User: What shape does this take?
Amino acid sequence: MQSLWNDIDAAHCDSPLALRAYASRLLGGDPTLVLHGGGNTSLKREAKSGCVLYVKGTVSDLAQATEQTFTPLRLDSVLRVLEQPPLDNAGMMRALEDGLLHRPALKPSIETLMHAGLPFALVEHTHADSVLAALNVDNIQAVHAEVYGVRAPLVPYQHSGHALARACLDTFRARGMANTIGLILAFHGVVAFGNDARTAYENMIELVTFAEEFLKARNAWRLPEAAPVAAAPDTQTLDALHTEINAIAGTALVRHVIGDAPTIAYAQRPDLAQISQQGPATPQHAVYTKRVPLIGRDVAGYAARYREYLDTHLGKTHSSLIDAAPRIALDPAFGLCAFGTTEREARIAAQMYQHDIAIITRASSHGRYRSAPAAAIALAEFEYGGYTARAA
Assistant: This one.
């Protein structure tokens, strides 16, 4: 991966926060690093009142980052929250309000505690496709040791928020060395850091490049292709499928079909029933794609299995808030059909699953693809899908 840093553009930034926003836009503009509001960045800066943590606001887009994208908090206040006994995300966000420098302010990132705890002026977090493709495998420990070692120690999977922040800090303290430039978050993504904007940004690029080079050396980079669908998908078949999915969703969903060569090749894989049912590359994708796609046309069977999965991991009270209708359908006849409550959501689901296809395909080319535990993905769908507010 090539660095896009440009000294002329950077020179136009008239403050450290403006430079922070510039580097964030470089990351956010690459969909192989950040998708649809994902990823987060931060800056720590001394002020008369003490050190201030500027962290990306929730739901803001890194590709469009400006100085106003970042929520300012008193670092000492945030660190006190990090030192508390474990909090759920709702409790953590309430506790963080005490550290806000002013109101109104954007809601700070769910990863605010992680940014606060790592002892660097700038911290970057992405869900880099290449890193996930290299590490989302059974032998994650062996691959990590070969690709990263102490350059970026491996953090065992934890749910975003307090638990992940503590795990990152504990891992850095236990395994961080003078040449450590980041952390690898198992089944989640990658963190890079530094004490100036260019160093932090280029450390992220270096970590992603390590993964790309590993995949290329294992002949796991090139994606197979099949002939794209020659004609428009059979509308009658898709209409029937769509009607069944609407009935289970309890609302009229919008669909978006993709039948390009890599997608058709994936839908035609003889092992599709095995590799596609492990889960998404990172749990956050489940908000748009669900944990697994529908294969074939048995919508009722899919819904029954998905309801059982939600009931098992969330309990029936919380599970009942989530519909069990698929959001991704795979079929060699049409490729990928994504569903969403709006055209935008359907397109986001399709794009996210296209990235999952690339990650799963590459991971399966050098190992046995694995995702985060099923319980973790269910929790992500519940929390990040906004169901916690309804459950309160």
About this structure: The first strand starts at residue 40 and ends at 47. The radius of gyration is 21 Å. The chain has 18 helices and eleven strands.
